[in-house]
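Please check this today:
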Amino acid sequence: MNENKNISSQTATSPSERAGQRLCILGAGESGVGAAYLAQQQGYDVFVSDFGAIADKYKEQLQQWNICFEESGHTEAEILSAVEVVKSPGIPEKAPIIKKLREAGIPVISEIEFAGRYTDAKMICITGSNGKTTTTSLTYHILKNAGLNVGLAGNIGKSFAYQVATEKFDWYVLEISSFMLDDMYRFKADVAVLLNITPDHLDRYEYKLENYAASKYRITQNQTEADYFIYCADDAETIKVLDGKEIAAQQLPFSIEKQLVPGAYLDADNLIINVNKQHFQMSINELALQGKHNIYNSMASGIVAKVLELRNDTMRESMGNFRNIEHRLESVGKISGISFINDSKATNVNSTWYALESMTTDVVLILGGVDKGNDYSMLRDLVKQKVKAIVCLGKDNKRIHDAFEDEVEVIVNTNSAQEATQVAYHLASKGDTVLLSPACASFDLFKNYEDRGNQFKAAVREL
């Protein structure tokens, strides 16, 4: 996507050579503050700049480390004096400060690119429009249980850069978003996993799916014949791009529709993995993660485990006892025979499709928020089959009403998590499921999807 023509000149060699060189960090969230700490450790003159307010916990860390920072605006002279800039993935290319940096020819890179320079650990990198947090967490769970010295980072957990500065892991399992990949140049994944490509964040990609898909495929750049590329053979967009692309790494596909060797596939109710003469078999009924989408996630994680030649017993145990992450199809409990599930992390239509697909009861669906140009048509069949009522949780719900008024008899508007939960509870009957799976971002009524999920869980406890 982005051209960083000066990138090679900025790969610093030793702390003494870096002494006094200005490195600027844009954005003081988890990744930015971690990158600042690593940069300081590496001898740079570090300056952190955030256009918004910096959270107290990050401000305290920067003060504790004596790192210069500013908030609620950018001092351009300070930033444009940098030899290199590490950018938060949330800052778009159209931001004025990024345009000025590009014009000045100052390299702009991601935290992943920066931190990767200072570790010899092997990298397992997982991306995709949906399922990447679950797959990353499951892969980490399997590797850790197998006794590997492994870290978990990227879009999840503690900052990768901070861990590089403070830990000594042999392996990292990294959840990587398209925004991180856009500013990744020399970094290499030893094992790259691409789960799927569906429309998401298209406002950052000129509303062109092919631009977004190209961004996802940056996960394969710099790979060699000694590396691995794991992908879903059933995903149309993934295959469309792959057909016209040369990948140096060894390719390991997975599918629930056809048999693939090498790779992973289903044989009746058995998940089969065959990689490099390594064979694994497990009943899908024994997997901790249920639902069609989670068979894909388990296949991807299982292939990684077999590439690393982990023992089948360890894999079987880990894939059977894994507990999913918070806010992703998280069981909140049962009240009056009604199940409550928190899927607040479902911020796009595809994630909500996967959630509905895994439901085995009638559903009261809590939907809505900041609509990123959603196409709700793909949900219609599942809504018609499984959803008895929709509770809208957002400031503007017109598009949800327009999309589903012919499929569902009851669509109700609410303005808070507490109100939405109470309304959903009264609309549900014993044996039903109340599912918070919004298909939208959360920023109209909440700080983020975690805040939305936590408020929902608190409201359930109050019923």
About this structure: The radius of gyration is 23 Å. Residues 1-12 have pLDDT under 50 and may be disordered. The first strand starts at residue 22 and ends at 26.
